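hey can u check if this looks right to u? its 223 residues, i copy pasted from the old doc so theres a chance i mangled smth
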Amino acid sequence: MAESASEKTRILLVDDHPMIRERLVELIERESDLEVCGEAEDRHEALDLVAATQPRLAIVDLTLKSSLGMELIKDLQARYPDVKVLVVSMQEEMIYAERCIHAGARGYITKQQASRHVMRAIRQVLAGGIYLSDFMTHHVLERSMGRPAQRESLEIVSQLADRELQVFELVGKGLSTRQIADQLTLDTKTIETYRARIKEKLGFKDGPELLQRAIAWVHRNNG
């Protein structure tokens, strides 16, 4: 995927909100050396476009149309390790940033950030660095020194593995076990197992409490 000096750096956008993609296209194409080579709404479309356009950077949201951005990050890391990934998401940074980095992303920034910060993240990742906000960088350093997390929302889900967190979030969005199974391409028994693990780890007494707490958590972190 080497590029000559005369070629623009290709960037793929993966987000199921057209307005967000329009904003990113406008931002990126102000830069003389960058271009948007494609736009995708879900995981499968994104993988097809990566193969077709060979981008240097994929900007990925965590919540996609009929798929999950975290799975796409892992797919890209496994199949196209030369493609750098920057996550631009509405999701809570304290909860998802480190998980995304561990999955293979090179940076994480929230959609609430100003355009100049998004471009700074793009440039830093393209240059081979890792981008996190100053707040998140401070949090990672604090935790590496053995200091406890300060945020309740982080404490609630810190015990959950990535897949368990995905199921917890989808429960909170009102999806049934069958719908979650279909979205994650798993069988319903596996989803029930994940639900049981979540209840055990978080100390919920039954399914209704799991649903209530998941809805509250999604509302708090996506509101």
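The chain has a mean pLDDT of 87.
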